[in-house]
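Suppose a colleague, Dr. K., hands you the sequence of a protein chain of 89 amino acids and asks what its three-dimensional shape might be. Before reaching for any lab equipment, you can write down a predicted structure in token form. Begin with the sequence itself:
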Amino acid sequence: MPTLVLLDLKLPKVDGLQVLECIRANKKTRTLPVVILTSSKEEQDVTASYDLGANSYVQKPVDSGKFAEVILTVCSYWLVLNEPPPVPR
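The predicted structure, expressed as tokens, is then:
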């Protein structure tokens, strides 16, 4: 079981929001932290992501150095500082 999901909305075959819906619909993954990490700044994408249960929405930078910084910051928070919910049985 993953500890964190970094999910892009613009996936090649399946829409990221559909993936998020599936994650939230499954009892075993319902409380799994999902961070939307995407290039979209569209208000409708932000709203839909939170409505479907995303824990965070981060616009991904195009610069590779800044992208690495964002990944490090996001992972540091969710994997080190955040207290996760108990694992569902």
